[in-house]
Amino acid sequence: MTAPTAPLGRLRLGVNIDHVATVRNARGSAYPDPVRAAKLAEAAGADGITAHLREDRRHISDADIEALMAALTLPLNFEMAATAEMQAIALRHRPHAVCIVPEKREERTTEGGLEVAREENRLAHFIAPLRDAGCRVSIFIAADPRQIEAAARIGAAVIELHTGAYCDLHAEGQIDQRDAELARLRDMAAFAHSLGLEVHAGHGLTYDTVQPVAAFPEVMELNIGHFLIGEAIFRGLDPAIREMRRLMDAARA
């Protein structure tokens, strides 16, 4: 059986605004405001906004989620751990999408993909109420066929492939390993698409690394945050996002 061919359509850009809140929280002030950043992102060409409400509330807060849900015209992608507390928050707000991610208090950022294959039964029951509430459920996973197959079996609509290893290898100058990881991401994007999953990708993407991933025809959305917020210090948020949008569109052309 031949796998379906993905159309090479416009690639969506989701802008993660977590680290606007990180800067705000460093001083305990009311600024910079993540909602203002979300509105600027929309004006600059973003197709959606991503915010991760962590267990320890290290950046995005409950009040931020309330404010985003009230103010956004773009879809909100609510990143969350698979906990009862986060499920209840998601069910109260009913964002457009929820992305289930692994989470450890001691990590600086999400260090790997979710282990779906070993927790298939628990996660299937966990995401069912979210689906029933109208949220599109995404699973953040490594480019591993076992995890992709498990994500499909539990009823997720979307997977987001973790691009962190590829980006780290690029930064370290390990070209052969980088290219091997990129090939694995490409193969797993095609495999996930063949199972009927919508494919997204993200984590660590920069101007230097985005285009090879953006060129995968099966990938429908990239979620990018930390790099854009950092680049905004030098360029401003609007031009930083516009340049990412330009590179994505050029890769897709």
List the helices and strands and how they pair.
Layout: E1 12-16, H1 18-27, H2 34-44, E2 48-52, H3 62-71, E3 76-80, H4 84-93, E4 97-100, H5 120-132, E5 136-141, H6 145-153, E6 158-162, H7 164-171, H8 175-194, E7 198-202, H9 210-214, E8 219-224, H10 226-235, H11 237-252
Parallel strand pairs: 1-2, 1-8, 2-3, 3-4, 4-5, 5-6, 6-7, 7-8
Helix pairs in contact: 2-11, 4-5, 7-8, 10-11
Helix content: 40-55%
How many separate domains?
Answer: 1
Strands ordered across the widest β-sheet? 1-2-3-4-5-6-7-8
Q: Which overall shape is indicated by the principal axes computed on the Cα atoms?
A: globular
* Average of the residue pLDDT scores: 93
So how many helices? 11
Report the structural category: alpha/beta
Strand content: 15-25%
Assigned CATH superfamily: Aldolase class I
CATH class descriptor: Alpha Beta
Q: Termini distance?
A: 29 Å
Q: What gyration radius follows from the Cα positions, in whole Å?
A: 17 Å
Descriptive key words:
8 strands; 253 residues; 8-stranded parallel barrel; globular; alpha/beta; TIM Barrel; 11 helices
